[in-house]
Design goal:
The chain is an all-alpha fold. The protein is built from 13 helices and 2 strands. Strands 1-2 form a two-stranded antiparallel sheet.
């Protein structure tokens, strides 16, 4: 029987080979490169903590961090707001809304579109002279002249943030719907019998019981938001324009590695991003946990 049990290891060996080769090894190699000066050619030159010292005083890195958090904040606010509103409407036992499966598929559809297609689509929609959005706003009399959405720092950040919210609100909606579905119907029926209106039911029943799910959405969205890269990369062709307003941390990392051949510093940026992600996640989790303890 012992010999027979050993055959089970043969089935998990391929997974561990792939995991070590494509996950563990790159992580450890990147950590090593972060202590070196390496251009991709020749042997890395060990420089100690020079890359991390530079990172702590790099104004471009802090600017990229600000841009990343700015875009993520817009994304998360609208993503969660729209998803929560729709989840509440579709789960309201008084409204008895139908067609949930159809709407769930429609809401999730933007998440299935390739990011290259999304970038091309919104580059056309947000175009200055011939963009559909400018023509629509001009026809409605909302604006008097075309807006150069992607060439102004403020509108460019808002545009990317709202595009991200449009892409991901369906995913968040499904998660919140699952969370609300897990709440016993007895709570809502009791609130209805006691005469609670929709707002009181939302504030006193739904949101408190939905906090663990919202914490999960917040942390996963934060982790994903700090890694935003593809949309700014495709819209700005990797430059982070206008005026560096779309230069996110990962785009800055990418340019350092593949545009300036500074792999050592790019590796230090990667681990700096990892530390920032851990710190923000811990702060978020502790804040939510402390509030739950106080309310408990």
């Amino acid at each position: 029987m012992k010999k027979l049990d050993n055959y089970g290891y043969m089935f998990i060996i391929p997974f561990f080979i792939v995991f070590v080769t494509f996950t563990i090894y790159p992580i450890l190699l990147t950590f090593y490169y972060s202590f070196t000066s390496y251009s991709g050619m020749g042997d890395p030159e060990f420089t100690g903590l020079a890359n991390y010292t530079r990172l702590l005083t790099d104004s471009y890195f802090y600017s990229a961090l600000y841009n990343t958090l700015y875009i993520w904040g817009i994304n998360f606010f609208f993503q969660l707001g729209i998803a929560l509103l729709l989840a509440i409407l579709f789960s309201d036992i008084r409204l008895k809304m139908r067609g949930l499966n159809i709407f769930r598929a429609l809401f999730y559809l933007p998440n299935l579109i390739t990011i290259a297609s999304v970038a091309l689509l919104f580059s056309i929609l947000l175009g200055w002279h011939h963009g559909t959005i400018n023509h629509l706003l001009l026809d409605l009399g909302i604006i008097s002249s075309p807006i150069d959405w992607l060439n102004d720092p403020t509108t460019a950040r808002w545009s990317v943030g709202l595009i991200g919210a449009w892409m991901w609100f369906g995913h968040t909606f499904i998660i919140l719907m699952a969370g609300i579905s897990g709440i016993s119907k007895d709570y809502f029926e009791a609130a209805l019998i006691d005469g609670a209106n929709r707002w009181q039911t939302l504030v006193k029943v739904t949101l408190p019981l939905l906090k663990p799910i919202m914490l999960y959405v917040l942390i996963t969205s934060l982790i994903g938001g700090l890694q935003i890269f593809d949309l700014p990369m495709l819209i700005t062709d990797g430059t982070g324009a206008p005026q560096g307003s779309l230069n996110t941390i990962v785009l800055y990392l990418y340019n350092q590695a593949f545009r300036y051949d500074n792999y050592g510093y790019a590796a230090a940026i990667a681990y700096g991003l990892f530390v920032i992600t851990v710190i923000f996640s811990i702060i978020t989790f502790k804040s939510m946990y402390r509030n739950n303890v106080k309310e408990g």
